[in-house]
């Protein structure tokens, strides 16, 4: 800036100050800053802005309307709510991800009660709550429903501990409710008809998801609810909804954009119709849903009725067949119509032939997930390097892939790194432990090395198969943007983990199971742990003494040792120095006081 420009801006500032009367320049600037920060929506950008100086720190806190808590034990509700006073939406995560695979005790913790109690006092205007891997009770939901009179959205993912009585409180008391989404969540049946508790007049519902529920619902009440919810765009049914009931709901809500079909297999025969006529009958309901772009469900599918979805396939951008055990021919009959598809979740029952069909049709595919029908390590898997290579050659816009298989080659992984350089997420899960390249018998080092070298936007990586320390050297050398790394049954020595901890500056979440990493590797990352969200190690070679040394040297780090037998699902008796899981995370608070007997906090 020139001297004249400086004088010009100085005179403007003086003029502004005189016009603002009693407001000092700092207050005027802070008001302007708050106005600008209102438009900053990215969480990481706001975090960076808050670190500029104290005035930016204050302004950012005052203008933040969404609060994200990545670990419910990293900060107390009191501390979080004292800093952020204008929050309208809260996102809270609880248990580590590997709790989904029975590798943590069910009573580990992550309770919603302290959070909802504090929220009720701090944010009476709260509109949205998103919870993931949190334990909550019916009383917690009742408190939530009673406390927030403008409440609009509740999303629960991998949660547990509550039932239909709690849902009835939310449905009855939250009169402005727009979103009620329950995904992969355990809901107990309290013999309460929660669907009938929604307002009897026109509702604000835009999204209703309960496909995870394992109990029947009052269909007549659901049909009436859908009929008086003109804004409803997303509806995902559980497996108890029959084809006939699905047909009736589609007639009531042709405006749907996202549909979970439920079973797609509970059939109530329509009188005087054969299978083809009945399929055309259901097809007419789908044809009326011209806005449908996302389709899921099919939990007990009868393949003979799959042609009834053909009328909507051309517009689909997302198709979830991850509960649908169908063969390659049945899958091909659907996928050949899905030219706009961007997200595809499937079971490996479609085989390599199904993946080849998808690669020929879905040229705009951005995300692919292939799950196993049978996770047994000793069986011959139906998908392999053939399917992976076909996808990489046909779907070059791919950004995210999760691929379960029994065998793989370096050649196929290298081909994917070259054909899909925009990959952000690459998760390859070779289910047989320490499986080498199925053709050459060599380690899979070069394949994963190519992924981190050629896919320079990569932020999430999961590795498996026979890997030496060389693979981890590649990750440390080239994975400069990797934020989440998952390792299973891999590595030679402590050096492998040292390469990662010393070479990946953006690393936030590190998950390791059944790998030969010990105390030396653990201590190599001491300089990183305050900047990471967590380190999770199961069945590795770290000792209690090594963990205690980390705990003593880093007082703001919580070090939890878990004695738990995942196969038995029980607390391990015996030597208190033995443990199966190390869970290490940063926290601004003292260690929690709700840990079960199986957890020792150092």
Give a brief rundown of this model.
The protein is an alpha/beta fold and 602 residues long.
Molecular structure report:
It is a single chain. By secondary structure, the protein is an alpha/beta fold. 34% of the residues lie in helices and 18% in strands. The longest helix has 17 residues, at 3-19. It starts with a helix and ends with a strand. The model is unreliable at 1-21 (pLDDT under 50).
- Number of alpha- plus pi-helical segments: 21
Q: Beta-sheet strand percentage?
A: 15-25%
Shape: globular
What's the N-to-C terminus distance?
55 Å
Spans where pLDDT lies below 50 across 5 or more residues: 1-21
Mean pLDDT: 90
Helix content: 25-40%
* Biggest sheet overview: 21 strands, mixed
DSSP strand tally: 25
Radius of gyration: 27 Å
Structural class: alpha/beta
Question: What are the main properties of this structure?
Answer:
21-stranded mixed sheet, 21 helices, alpha/beta, globular, two-stranded parallel ribbon, 25 strands, single chain, about 600 residues, disordered N terminus
């Amino acid at each position: 800036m020139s001297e004249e420009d400086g004088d010009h801006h100085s005179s403007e500032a003086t003029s502004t100050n005189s016009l603002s009367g009693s407001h000092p320049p700092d207050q005027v600037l802070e008001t302007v800053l708050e106005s600008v920060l209102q438009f900053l929506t990215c969480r990481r950008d706001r975090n960076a802005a808050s670190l500029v100086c104290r005035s930016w720190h204050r302004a950012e806190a005052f203008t933040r309307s969404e609060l994200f808590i990545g670990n419910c034990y990293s900060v107390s509700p009191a501390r979080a709510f004292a800093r952020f006073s204008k929050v309208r939406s809260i996102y809270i995560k609880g248990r580590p991800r590997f709790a989904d695979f029975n590798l943590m005790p069910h009573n580990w913790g992550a309770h919603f009660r302290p959070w909802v109690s504090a929220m009720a006092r701090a944010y009476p205007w709260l509109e949205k709550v998103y919870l993931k891997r949190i334990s909550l009770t019916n009383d917690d939901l009742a408190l939530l429903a009673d406390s927030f009179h403008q409440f609009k959205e509740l999303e629960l993912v991998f949660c547990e501990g509550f039932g239909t009585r709690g849902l009835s409180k939310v449905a009855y008391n939250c009169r402005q409710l727009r979103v009620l989404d329950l995904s992969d969540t355990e809901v107990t049946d309290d013999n309460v008809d929660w669907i009938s508790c929604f307002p009897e007049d026109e509702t604000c519902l835009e999204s209703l998801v309960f496909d995870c529920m394992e109990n029947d619902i009052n269909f007549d009440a659901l049909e009436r609810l859908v009929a008086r919810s003109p804004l409803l765009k997303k509806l995902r049914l559980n497996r108890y909804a029959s084809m006939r009931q699905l047909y009736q709901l589609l007639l009531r809500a042709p405006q749907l954009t996202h549909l979970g079909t439920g079973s797609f297999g509970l059939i109530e025969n329509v009188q005087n119709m054969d299978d083809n006529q009945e399929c055309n009958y259901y097809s007419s309901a789908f044809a009326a849903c011209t806005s449908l772009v996302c389709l899921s469900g099919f939990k007990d599918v009868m393949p003979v009725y799959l042609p009834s979805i053909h009328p909507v396939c051309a517009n689909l951008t997302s198709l979830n067949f991850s509960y649908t055990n169908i063969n390659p021919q049945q899958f091909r009959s659907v996928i050949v119509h899905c030219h706009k598809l961007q997200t595809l979740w499937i079971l490996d029952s479609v085989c390599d032939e199904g993946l080849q069909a998808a690669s020929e049709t879905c040229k705009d595919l951005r995300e692919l997930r292939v799950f196993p029908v049978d996770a047994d390590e000793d069986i011959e898997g139906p998908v392999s390097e053939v399917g992976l290579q076909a996808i990489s050659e046909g779907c070059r816009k791919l950004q995210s892939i999760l691929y379960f298989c029994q065998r793989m080659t370096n050649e196929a992984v290298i081909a994917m790194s070259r054909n899909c350089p925009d990959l952000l997420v690459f998760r390859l899960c070779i289910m047989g432990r320490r499986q080498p390249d199925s053709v050459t018998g060599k380690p899979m080092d070069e394949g994963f090395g190519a992924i981190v070298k050629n896919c320079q936007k990569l932020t999430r990586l999961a590795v498996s198969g026979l890997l030496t320390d060389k693979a981890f050297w590649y990750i440390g050398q080239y994975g400069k943007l990797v934020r989440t790394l998952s390792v299973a049954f891999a590595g030679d020595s402590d050096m492998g983990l040292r390469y990662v901890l010393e070479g990946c500056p953006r690393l936030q979440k590190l998950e390791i199971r059944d790998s030969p990493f010990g105390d030396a590797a653990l201590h190599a990352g001491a300089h990183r742990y305050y900047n990471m969200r967590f380190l999770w190690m199961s069945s590795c070679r770290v000792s209690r003494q090594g963990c205690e040394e980390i705990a003593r040297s880093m007082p703001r780090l919580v070090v939890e040792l878990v004695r738990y037998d995942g196969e038995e699902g029980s607390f391990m008796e015996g030597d208190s120095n033995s443990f199966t899981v190390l869970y290490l995370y940063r926290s601004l608070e003292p260690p929690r006081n709700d840990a079960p007997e199986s957890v020792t906090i150092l």
